[in-house]
Amino acid sequence: MADWASFWAMGGYASYVWSAYGIAAAVITLNVVLPVWYHRGLKRRIRRGAFIDD
């Protein structure tokens, strides 16, 4: 790479490359956050005594 500008432009494919990185980061983040969120809600329901799925 001659300079940083050419690195960030990635030969004209930057929009495809960086959007793929962004989508992958979003999916990985959701794969971590959603189960934690669900688990917290489940623990809250168990503490309240709401065992039956309404």
Automatic annotation (TrEMBL):
<dbReference type="InterPro" id="IPR052075">
    <property type="entry name" value="Heme_exporter_D"/>
</dbReference>
<protein>
    <recommendedName>
        <fullName>Heme exporter protein D</fullName>
    </recommendedName>
</protein>
<keyword id="KW-0813">Transport</keyword>
<keyword id="KW-1133">Transmembrane helix</keyword>
<dbReference type="Pfam" id="PF04995">
    <property type="entry name" value="CcmD"/>
</dbReference>
<comment type="similarity">
    <text>Belongs to the CcmD/CycX/HelD family.</text>
</comment>
<keyword id="KW-0201">Cytochrome c-type biogenesis</keyword>
<keyword id="KW-0472">Membrane</keyword>
<keyword id="KW-0997">Cell inner membrane</keyword>
<keyword id="KW-1003">Cell membrane</keyword>
<comment type="function">
    <text>Required for the export of heme to the periplasm for the biogenesis of c-type cytochromes.</text>
</comment>
<feature type="transmembrane region" description="Helical">
    <location>
        <begin position="16"/>
        <end position="38"/>
    </location>
</feature>
<dbReference type="GO" id="GO:0015886">
    <property type="term" value="P:heme transport"/>
</dbReference>
<dbReference type="GO" id="GO:1903607">
    <property type="term" value="P:cytochrome c biosynthetic process"/>
</dbReference>
<dbReference type="GO" id="GO:0017004">
    <property type="term" value="P:cytochrome complex assembly"/>
</dbReference>
<dbReference type="GO" id="GO:0005886">
    <property type="term" value="C:plasma membrane"/>
</dbReference>
<keyword id="KW-0812">Transmembrane</keyword>
<dbReference type="InterPro" id="IPR007078">
    <property type="entry name" value="Haem_export_protD_CcmD"/>
</dbReference>
